[in-house]
Amino acid sequence: MPQLPEPLERLIQELSRLPGIGPKTAQRLAFHLLRADRQRADSLAQAIQDVKDRIGYCERCYNIAEGSLCWICMSPRRNSTLLCVVESALDLLAIERTSEFGGLYFVLHGVISPIDGIGPEQIHVPELLARVRAEGVTEVIVATDADIEGEATALYLQRALAPLAVTVTRPAHGLPVGGDLEYADELTLARAMAGRRTF
Ligand SMILES: [Zn+2]
After folding, report:
1. How far is the CA of 167 from the centre of ligand 1 (A)?
2. Do the beta carbons of residue 122 and residue 98 sit within 8 Å?
3. Where are the beta strands (DSSP E) in the chain?
4. Which candidate, 15, 13, 8, places its Cα nearest to that of 34?
5. Cα 107 to middle of ligand 1, angstroms
6. What is the spatial distance between Cα 40 and Cα 42, in angstroms, rounded to a whole number?
7. What is the value of pTM for the model shown?
8. How far is the CA of 145 from the centre of ligand 1 (A)?
9. Range with the lowest mean pLDDT among 15-19, 36-40, 42-46, 189-193?
10. Number of Cβ atoms within 10 Å of the Cβ of 16
11. Helices and strands, counts by H and E, the chain
12. How far is the CA of 87 from the centre of ligand 1 (A)?
């Protein structure tokens, strides 16, 4: 392939680092941006910068937040005795879309995976236990994915929470086995949350 001008080459490189974007798609997107209005391109660049400058993580639940607390932790209408543990902020958004859950969350940002060097500390398990102890939580819903690592993490959490006198539940089956919670349809997810049961 002929050598492309350096800035274009660099844009293709950067785009191809994004998840799900192969070299061909990166090239197509780069050429699309090259043809696009100056204003469109600028607003894309600005949106990326604003996200990096202004969005961080909630210091209470690790959800995404603009400021120190997320919109869920700041809401006076949430039931603070119910705590739902999820793998990612995208899983949290999926559960929020069902409008089925009125409690609070704790976002792990991962699962326990010894092979990748991810242990309980890396996914904030000590902070989770401290929060359950301090905030009068009566039920912890462990909504990790139904794949091997998600199940292993759920089991680990169930054991870690056992001495704390809280009910630990898992969303009902019906979620796609091995599938990502984030991709479950709303009705399936709503039913799974409503039909949750203890370990
Ligand atoms: Zn929060």
Report:
1. 21
2. no
3. 56-57, 64-65, 79-86, 103-107, 139-142, 167-170, 197-198
4. 8
5. 9
6. 5
7. 0.82
8. 20
9. 189-193
10. 16
11. 8, 7
12. 14
